[in-house]
Amino acid sequence: MPYFVDIEHDRKRVTIVGRDPVGLSDVIALLDGQVRDGAWSYGSLHDARLVTWIPSPDDVVAIVVHIAAIVAAHGPRGPVGFVAASQTRVGIARMYAAIAEGSRYKASVFRNREDAERWLEAASAQQV
Length: 128
Fold this sequence. Notes:
Blueprint: E1 3-8, E2 13-19, H1 24-36, E3 43-50, H2 57-74, E4 80-83, H3 87-101, E5 107-110, H4 113-127
């Protein structure tokens, strides 16, 4: 899998660092792994700065639909802070965050990890 995943159960935090090659099936497997590992409701920091894949709008919809199915089965997802490098990936991540907003969980996009960490700490504290 093109993802490094660190789950801190005591902190209720998932840190994900992606590296190429990444595709839709990898994202679906990543989400399913978060459920399998009991970390679905945890806050997630998703660092995608090393990923060059740009999901199509259909890919983004497929991801959101998959998340909706998981939410129906396992409850709300924890907040997700995305870190993206290129303007295009920031735009795609913002589209995802906007779609996510309608599904009652929080997602936001950042250019650096420090800002994402601060936002995630605050969003996770509000969740408790």
